[in-house]
UniProtKB/TrEMBL annotation:
<feature type="transmembrane region" description="Helical">
    <location>
        <begin position="272"/>
        <end position="290"/>
    </location>
</feature>
<protein>
    <submittedName>
        <fullName>Uncharacterized protein</fullName>
    </submittedName>
</protein>
<feature type="compositionally biased region" description="Pro residues">
    <location>
        <begin position="84"/>
        <end position="103"/>
    </location>
</feature>
<keyword id="KW-0812">Transmembrane</keyword>
<feature type="region of interest" description="Disordered">
    <location>
        <begin position="34"/>
        <end position="109"/>
    </location>
</feature>
<keyword id="KW-0472">Membrane</keyword>
<keyword id="KW-1133">Transmembrane helix</keyword>
């Protein structure tokens, strides 16, 4: 009887020890689970989502895993919201910064007004004989009025060719610059008879005129170039700039003048001062002769 009681107590002691060991194992396992739950979920989410994505598309590439890994696994909405940072603000657009600089085309469209241009270049010029080239610009004067003005300015020529008058629409500003060039600089001698930069009235119907004296230096078919520019102030570069509004190439034929015709042409062009100088010389000679005769008569009467 005593032996049976001792064996029963031994068995009970073994079960008690097993129960204690089980409790210790459960306690340790629970602590490990709690420490795993306290870790940052954001560090595990990309890997889990990446593995799921790799399994779905069958690639398992690193790039695909990083792109798709931004989606967290299932969980509470509050935990997801706290784990995902807010998106960065969008980059500033061009409208937020300074406006782009204006191009010459923008300046022409924004600051210049429509106007009229007309010029006359003779079809034929004589070598070593000056010819005149005229150009007029107006904001409000009609093209027909500009043509009449040019016709009156060439009326003094022997055979003016009004078909050589060119009219065109251009953009104008208060300050305009006109220049005349020779395509071959050795073929002409060009002297401006007016300032290159002149004021153009944008309110009334007045016109502004440029003129040049052109002397062909060699015979042949040549070309003259007429350029007109609007002078405006460019605030982007803080300086005045010339915006070309017209560029025309005009063919001209230079011919050699025969000597008799050259003398006659010289007389026609300079007869005014020749007559004036000749009259003055004639008067001086007459006075000298009269003075000499008077002195001679005085000497004879004294004898």
């Amino acid at each position: 009887m005593l032996i049976e009681m001792n064996s029963g107590q031994n068995i009970l002691g073994v079960f008690q020890k097993l129960a204690v060991l089980v409790l210790l194992a459960v306690t340790l396992f629970g602590c490990n689970n709690d420490s795993a739950k306290t870790e940052d979920p954001a560090t595990d989410y990309p890997a889990t989502a990446s593995q799921d994505t790799a399994m779905m598309d069958g690639t398992g590439s690193r790039d695909t895993m990083e792109v798709v890994g931004a989606t967290p696994p299932t969980g509470s909405d509050s935990e997801d919201t706290a784990a995902v940072p807010p998106p960065p603000p969008p980059p500033p657009t061009s409208a937020d910064g300074p406006p782009p600089p204006q191009t010459p085309h923008d300046l022409v469209d924004n600051y210049l007004k429509k106007g009229n241009l007309g010029y006359y270049v003779p079809d034929s010029m004589k070598v070593n004989v000056p010819s005149r080239v005229s150009l007029v610009i107006s904001k409000n004067k009609p093209a027909a009025a500009l043509k009449r003005s040019l016709e009156s300015s060439i009326a003094h020529e022997a055979r003016p060719d009004t078909s050589r008058i060119t009219l065109d629409r251009i953009k104008v500003s208060k300050q305009m610059v006109a220049k005349l060039y020779a395509m071959d600089s050795t073929a002409f001698r060009i002297e401006p008879l007016s300032h290159a930069q002149q004021y153009v009235d944008l309110q009334d119907t007045t016109e502004t005129k440029w003129e040049w004296s052109v002397v062909p230096l060699k015979a042949g078919n040549q070309n003259l170039i007429i350029k007109a520019s609007a002078r405006v102030y460019d605030g982007d570069v803080a300086e005045w700039i010339d915006l070309e509004v017209y560029n025309g190439v005009v063919p001209v034929k230079a011919v050699v003048v025969p000597k008799p015709e050259r003398v006659l042409s010289y007389w026609k062009e300079n007869q005014g001062w020749i007559i004036t100088t000749g009259g003055a010389l004639g008067g001086l000679i007459t006075w000298l002769l009269a003075t000499f005769k008077r002195k001679k008569a005085t000497s004879a009467s004294a004898e």
